[in-house]
Amino acid sequence: MIDDLDRPLGQDQRPPPQPGRGRRWLAPAALALVVAGGGAYFVVGKARGPGADPEAVATIRPAPPPAPPKPNAAAADEVATASQVEVESGVRVFRGSGGVPGPVIIPVTDAGGASPLPPAPDRRLVEKSRFGPLPRRVKDGATPAQVYARPLSLQSPIRPGTPRVAILVGGMGLDVAATDSAVHSLPADVSLAFAPYGAELERQTAAARDAGHEILLQAPMDPFNSSDSPGPHVLRVSDGTKALDDLHWQMGRFVGYVGLVNFLGGRFTADQAATQLLMRELADRGLDYVDDGSSPQSLAGAVATASGVGFAKADLRIDASRNPESIDAALFRLETLARQNGVAVGFAAGLPEASERIARFVAELKHRGVALIPVSAAVRLQALAAADKR
Description:
- By secondary structure, the chain is of the alpha/beta class.
- It has helices spanning 73-76, 82-89, 144-147, 176-185, 201-210, 243-251, 266-269, 272-285, 300-307, 324-341, 352-365, 375-389; strands spanning 29-36, 39-47, 54-56, 126-127, 134-135, 164-172, 191-194, 215-221, 257-264, 288-291, 311-313, 316-317, 343-348, 371-373.
- The strands form three sheets. Strands 6, 7, 8, 9, 10, 11, 12, 13 and 14 form a nine-stranded parallel sheet that branches.
- Mean pLDDT is 79; it is low at 1-48, 68-80 and 87-114.
């Protein structure tokens, strides 16, 4: 005998019911759950009498479509300029009458742990020299400062008006163990500066970029006190144009950096001719410059701007004291400056004590409504602010 539940639809040719032989596996009243179109309906079946077949009636309606997402009114009220969009997305827009540049490859990484930064070196950006591979600007407009920078699109969107903090930690490469610790313990949006004297620079700079940190070259320069000279190939005022050989030696020590930051250099950056020589070279090669803020006599900012070099200056030194309370106070001051000015840059010398305090500080920033950005983004934002003042 064919069961009603197995009979194809439309074939209602049931044998007549036999008295006294009702289906015993159906209770007088049956309760069923029907799911259709995302909706659920209860159906009651009730036997009509002795020996009668059960009867069930169900109304099946499609579930209502999901409600469209509500627009973010707060976000709609805030309009960012095209330049701000470029800075915050990490996508560079080429403008002008120079024609369309060559093909541009934008690397897209998955969540599998691969580095979010493009591989270094990019062969387009390499000039071979007797000092090693030197960075260069290419004809299509691409520069090391653009290509090697950490894009802001890697973090959560930053709403216009959000205070921003950039932190640059120097002294990397000089102590192998301390550098490895900083590379893996500091958040990726903290930028790292490597001195050219490290014993394992190639490995450690690659590891830093693999961890998502953008990197800079911390260039030793002529200090006021000659006894403070850090080592060989220091950029000296007295060397004139021959200082370029020492600069190229420093530049050839590793690859993938977005720019330079001074290591000492009070005398060098206070000299107009020496600073102009440096900035012309950086402009030609498409590199940024960051002043660590240690010398009040530095001419780097004015000369960099006049030379077309991306520039940022550190607002304060984070680890001027090794005391944890002093480091925390400096970080709090940095946050305050960001709230006052929109963006603030802090510099640290790379002491292990400071790295630990910086990691804790950064972990709490987002909850206080402050964004951490790489120092290259601070360079672009400071350039926008300077342009608005002109």
